[in-house]
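BUG: 3D viewer hangs when loading the predicted structure for this chain

Environment: internal workstation, default settings.
Expected: structure renders.
Actual: progress bar stalls at 90%.

Input used:
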Amino acid sequence: MIKLLLVEDDFFASRNLDVFVTKLRKLFADDPKVEIKTARSVRLMLVVK
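Structure tokens produced before the viewer hung:
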């Protein structure tokens, strides 16, 4: 039972992160100096030029 709860929590936690990153991308969409990149080993990178 505990394992089932942890798996469900992981799904919701990762989904919350996806929503948060999407909102950040929309927020910075008009600023060419700021970019959020997805990298294989790092996952997410905030790039400020």
